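# nightly structure sweep
# worker-07 picked up a monomer target from the shared queue
# config: single-sequence mode, recycle default, output format = structure tokens
# input follows
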Amino acid sequence: MEKSRLEIDCAHGKGIASIVCCHLLNSVDSVGFIENNSDPDNLQAWCYACEFFFQQEEEMSEEFKNFNNAKVVCEKCYEELKNTHSIK
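# output follows
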């Protein structure tokens, strides 16, 4: 059975929904890019600050969720953010 994927509309048109932290969307400087799901059909990422916060909390606490403030983007936006924020 094929998995159904959630699609969203954005400036790129219709695309597969992906999740990123607000810092990836709001920062013009590179903040690091950590993919936190190995399933290629479930794109999720956050920045280094979110990774540090998550490690301190040891769980998806309410404080972490508020800090992360996750947003839904399309997979093309996700790839652009990955290229912008990945530290090489």
